[in-house]
Specification:
Layout (H helix, E strand, L loop, with lengths): L5 E4 L9 H14 L7 H5 L6 H11 L5 H22 L7 H10 L3 E5 L4 H11 L7 E3 L12 H10 L6 E5 L2 H9 L4 E3 L8 H6 L2 E2 L3 H10 L1
Parallel strand pairs: 1-2, 1-4, 2-3, 4-5, 5-6
Helix pairs in contact: 1-4, 4-6, 5-10
């Protein structure tokens, strides 16, 4: 890339170390509902999906549960995580503050594009003091199709108002990478729970171990 004028940030697993908390709480509550096979590997299969897609995945994968039981699992697992985040916030991923400070100081516009709901995004960004670091937010509430569909990336590009060839997206999930790739926006993977596979390597601009490495990459462009 010759120039980077805009950066699209995923949130869960990229800005905040939330995926590990979601995974832990979901696994604990899944045991209560006797959901066979709901372990860390299963949780990874839903990373990056929107809430509607995750709900339908539960319906398909756990046919032994009644719909009201799935509804209750969905409600309790989200409520447990929400209570934790609303009380203490979420751990910030290493390098986030340094990267945002550099981008803001150099006039690079930043947008959040997350499949999470807007209320959760606002709460987490506000608690971390990051709200004023971003020019806009696209949430799962703002799109008809969540990742891996490219709609959320396309909307983020509209907010940035910057050519795609001058934009990069930062992602930790394969579904997010697919969304960015389909939208023709160069994407950098910063792995969290999910390690890069051949598809991730093929569809990304590069893969970096941390946001500190992303910052070094951007400085070198």
């Amino acid at each position: 890339m010759k120039k980077i004028s805009g950066v699209i940030f995923d949130m869960d697993g990229l800005i905040f170390d939330t995926e590990a908390v979601y995974s832990k709480n979901n696994i604990e509550i899944a045991q209560k509902f006797k959901m066979p096979g709901y372990d860390e590997e299963y949780y990874k299969s839903e990373v990056g999906l929107g809430e509607k897609a995750v709900y339908q995945k539960y319906v398909n994968d756990f046919p032994m549960l009644r719909q009201d039981e799935i509804d209750q699992f969905f409600k309790e697992s989200r409520a447990s995580t929400w209570e934790e985040f609303s009380t203490v916030g979420a751990p910030i991923k290493p390098g986030v503050e340094e990267l945002l400070t550099y981008l803001n100081n150099h006039g690079v516009k930043c947008v959040v594009a997350s499949s999470n709901n807007r209320e959760a995004i606002d709460m987490l960004l506000d608690k971390a003091g990051f709200m004023d670091k971003f020019s806009g937010i696209v949430s799962g509430n703002d799109v008809t199709h969540a990742k891996p569909h490219p709609e959320i990336v396309e909307k983020a590009v509209e907010i940035l108002g910057i050519p795609k060839e001058e934009t990069i997206m930062l992602e930790d999930s394969l579904n997010g990478i697919r969304a960015s790739f389909t939208a023709n926006v160069p994407v950098i993977m910063v792995p969290d729970l999910i390690l890069p596979n051949d598809e991730a390597k093929e569809k990304t601009l590069t893969i970096k171990d941390s946001l500190y490495d992303v910052l070094d990459y951007i400085k070198s462009v």
